[in-house]
Design a protein that fits this description.
This protein is an all-beta fold. It is built from no helices and 3 strands. It has one domain. A hairpin with a 4-residue loop joins strand 2 and strand 3. 0% of the residues are buried.
């Protein structure tokens, strides 16, 4: 049986940070990255 992975994305309404998590089938977190918002001038 091959790996089954899925991603979850959350946006914090206060900080506007975007968090992406890569999860395996057992819901173990394999990778997480949080991105800060960038304001255009």
């Amino acid at each position: 049986m091959g790996l089954q992975l899925f991603g979850l994305v959350d946006i914090d309404g206060d900080s506007e940070q975007l968090t992406v998590r890569l999860m395996d089938r057992g819901e173990a977190k394999l990778y997480k990255v949080t991105l800060d918002p960038v304001r255009s001038a």
